[in-house]
Amino acid sequence: MNKKKVYPYWFLLVPLVLYALFFLLPSLLGIFYSFTDWNSRTVDDLHFVGLKNYIEIFASDKDYLSGIGHTLMFTIVSNIVKLIPALFLAVMLQEGLRGKNIYRTLLYLPSILPFVIIGIVFRSVLNYNNGLLNSVLEFLQLGFLKQKWLSDLGVVWKSIVGVDAWRGIGYVMTIFIAGLGAIPKTYYEAAQIDGANFWQRLRHITLPMLSGSIMINLVFGITYGLKVFDIIYVLTNGGPGHATEVMTTYSYQMYANGQYGMSVAFNTILLIITAVVGVFIVRTMSKKEVQQ
Amino acid sequence: MKRKVISAILCASMLTGMLAGCGGGSGSSSAAPEASGAGEASEAPASTGGEASDAGSETGGSAAEATEDFSGQELSILVSAGWMDNRYDETIARFEETYNVTVDLQTIPADQYSDLLQSKLTTDSCADIFWIQSNPFAIESVIVDPEKYCIDFTGAEWAAKMPEARLSSCEYNDKLYGLQIWHNSPEYVMVYNKTMFDELSLSVPKTYAELLTVCEKLAAEGITPWFMPGADGWQHQLAFFQIGGVYEQTKPGLYEGLNNNTETFADNEKMLEVLGQFKELSDKGYFGEDWIGTDSTNMSNEFGDRNCAMAMANSSFIKQIQEDTGTSDEFGLFLIPLGDNDTFPTNPAGPTMFGYNGTEHPELVKTFFNFVCETQSLQEILDNSPAYTNVHMNDDAVEQHWLPEEEAFMSTIDESKMGTSVLQTGTKYTNDYWGDFGADMIAYCQGTMEANDVLKNMDANRAEAAGVVGDPAWQ
Amino acid sequence: MKKKINVVLKQLCCIVLCLIVIAPFYMVLINSFKPKAEASRMSLALPTKWMFNNYTEVIEKGKLVQGFFNSLEYAAIATLVGVIGAAMAAYVMSRRRTKLNNFLYYFVLCGLFFPVNYVTLVKVLSTFQLNDTRVGIILAFTSAMIPFCVFTIYSFVSTVPVELDEAAVIDGAGPVTLFFKIIVPMLKPTLVTCFILQFMSVWSDFLTPLYLSSKSRLFPMTMAVYQFFGKNTNYWNYIFADIVLTCIPVVIVYLLGQKYIIGGLTSGAVKE
Fold it and tell me: Which of B7, B117, B307 is the mutation pick for testing C, counting most C CBs within 10 A?
């Protein structure tokens, strides 16, 4: 079989040209600008300033570094909160539960909603005085659990992570369900005969067999966490004060203030962090597989 | 194996990237309307503009020589949501009919507008008419290069109709660029439930001490004294900035000093005092139990339900409370008494329209500007904006609809207390950092920041903006 | 007995979770039928007066019909072109692992790390005279989805046996026939998944059309909601009605295609 003829290069032409021209080129131009004094005034008259923008980010009085810290914190916490419950949900829905298809469909539904709408809805649900959440708590005689969900410094991150889980858990679960579906039933039957309990089966069959799905979810989750923007923008916009600023919200503010160069520099830092973390995960994962 | 893993990972992260929408850069979507422009959509008939499929904008490229035959042309207008609303619909429809043109009205989400305008100007793809929230310094800081981007209207017919006070927001280097049709109602003063005050035999507070007493009594009745929608992110700052006159009064020459970089926000005693008072009210719960997490969504209902007694709002808000909730309570207005303020928030700022210099049909743009300044148009604009009681233009033929509450309030204010503009538009670069200052104020109220650092950040931000512009006073 | 309790507990847990998920949807729906002031309370109570004309008002004021067809055009065309194009590319790159192809593969990978920059995008588009056109908007959407689609499809292609290609070639099929008649049907689950996910993301993205056009008749449906936000007063009844109308098409697409999502998303990557 003549591969050249059967798999012609011209199949690549259209998608690659489009991608290079209308996606990659503008993005690369953007990174180039992070080394210039690009702002709302110098659009036509750019000057190369080297690393000045980067130095300013790290040396500024404003606490940009806390944005980096928050980003990392959110990445870790939000993944724990989504992955573990989603795993148990998936296991539960994988077993022959009546109505499981309806549950799957419903639980996935939030992830198709636009963020704007999630923001509008949850700012109202989390309102202290007349929000749905506090009203329900009061109704259930759980008034002591009432919180200032979006303004108490000790609670606001929990609310964000909670809303993020509301949105994302169905998605994570769906991927776990796919992975569970690929585990042969005979494994569990054998374990049952050996008298293994739920936890033993989880530890010795489910988790090892799920490593593919777990990895996908981790990578999904970590890159999402590092790039998180929308959910914070629509819920708190970095507030109260600067308590929930992350890298992308700072970058957005700089953009809005016309400091384009600084904004792009912030994005570039994020890009580097994402790339480093990505390489790190690939390394550990491939090592693990070699051991197995 | 390894390649598979890599591909899976990259596939996965790609997916996430895409699903997460735009991870950074130029932002995303939110619904928070920002501190600019104003107004409610009216019940007026929906726009008929901006449809027509046969928009041959190429025809008549040089209309100047012709007898103003614009037929078939399309006039595009770029505006932030809330600046035009439906109140221009009738006028625009009439304009379309008169000149046989189509008007393409592009209403942009408020939080996207300034980014978008900036991008449209720099990429030479702006609409024929664009708007900005102008103030005496905004033309320079927002439009950046008016000579390049704006049509010079110096000597236009409509210039005479512009009130003197508003011209400063429309001119740059002695050239007239902008047209500001706005109202002259008291903006962001205290609206209060008069009936409730009378029942509790409270009198209008004139000083901070009196305000505290009033708040204490209201709070004892289980009423939120002062409704403060902190979650909106742009309203609570008003308490600090609207009383700009009192800072100037305490330290004459302050505004000039701030504009010449010889004065600072930091260490200004009056400002520190006001911030301290604001925090005290917050600490005592007089803004409501969770003002930082509350937005203005439910504000008129809160008034109607008698859950709150006062709030910073425009005079027209009274009408809105009554319409929304059907309450029979009476309402009134008084000056924000923080820092014992007794000055009126004079504000020459407002949404202002400009002609884009790169337009294909400048004559049509000029015609439109003249058209909206005709008495009939002004009257239509006023009548179609239920939120406004008057239109601030030099045209005695327009029939104004002042509210009795407004007139009562205005009559209590001495002319001499109206001389100073509010702080955000009376001083350079200040307004551009509205949101930052608001965030800092909340950080201060939550005890994670010092009052003077809030002020210092404003100085630093202003210096940065001045640096970008190349302002000689900051060199 | 113990098993029964177990099942009941599980059912209960699922029902509670689903209620939590549904409550906000219900809140939006029910409030879209209320008068203005009542809607801004955002309660779960039934409307005191059913305002069905909220919907007709929104459709008229928000020009939703025009917006709907714009959104449909962008989402359908961009996604169709993007998915088919990416499938062709992924297929060739996966089947013919030359050095060049591997390089191109990683070259496309890079796309996932880069943020979108609208200002530079507008500049590039206007050099091709594509600024302010439907074609430009669609191309921008298409190019942005190519990396994602290529990667999802790439790993899936290797699960399609090469023997199929060989058999088809022996039967005299050319590359185009082979791809569209034999390969595409085999890739259907992953193609449908890509289509659905991308369709949904294009549908909810309003920033791209906003930056790339300066004519309101090119605006998508999602933009309309902003017309109901004012400075001091928001028309929550209209906002909610608009949200319902904007979401219906995506929900329909999701419900029609949901059975593919699980299979198409992961089969390539999960299988070792």
Answer: B7
State the total domains in chain A: 1
Distance separating alpha carbons of residues C155 and C237, to the nearest angstrom: 46
**Helix count (H) and strand count (E) of chain C?**
13, 0
Between CA A119 and CA A134 the distance in angstroms is 17
CATH number of residue A81's parent domain = 1.10.3720.10
Domain ranges of chain C: 58-270
The ipTM, to two decimals, is: 0.83
CA distance B387 to C199: 40
Q: What ranges do the domains of chain B cover?
A: 74-184+349-397, 189-343+408-474
CB contact under 8 A, C207 and B31: no
Topology, domain B189-343+408-474: D-Maltodextrin-Binding Protein; domain 2 (3.40.190)
What is the fold of C58-270?
MetI-like fold (1.10.3720)
Residue A121: closest C-alpha in chain C: C24
**CA-atom Rg of chain A in angstroms:** 24
Name the DSSP letter for residue A289: H
**Cα atoms in the Cβ-side hemisphere of radius 13 Å centred on B98:** 13
CA distance A274 to A75: 11
Identical fold between B74-184+349-397 and B189-343+408-474 = yes
Q: Is A79 inside any structural domain?
A: yes
Per-residue pLDDT of chain C (272 residues; tens, 9 = 90+): 777 888 888 888 889 989 888 888 888 899 999 988 888 877 788 888 898 989 998 898 888 899 899 999 999 999 999 999 999 999 999 898 888 988 898 888 777 767 677 778 888 888 888 888 899 999 999 999 998 888 778 878 888 888 888 899 898 888 999 999 989 988 888 888 888 888 888 988 877 888 888 777 888 888 777 777 765 567 888 888 998 998 888 888 888 877 777 665 555 444 43
Indicate whether A57 belongs to any domain: no
* CA gap A249, B25 in Å, rounded: 9
A19 at interface of C, judged by CB pairs closer than 8 A: yes
B74-184+349-397: which CATH topology?
D-Maltodextrin-Binding Protein; domain 2 (3.40.190)
Does A239 contact B233 at a Cβ distance shorter than 8 Å? yes
Flag whether A1 is in a domain.
no
pTM score: 0.79
Q: Do C120 and A107 touch (CB under 8 A)?
A: no
What tokens were used for B374?
Answer: 């005709």
Helices (H), B251-361: 254-259, 269-283, 299-304, 316-325
Range of the domain at A109: 75-245
**Nearest residue of chain C to residue B31 (CA atoms):** C226
Q: Does A7 touch chain C (CB under 8 A)?
A: yes
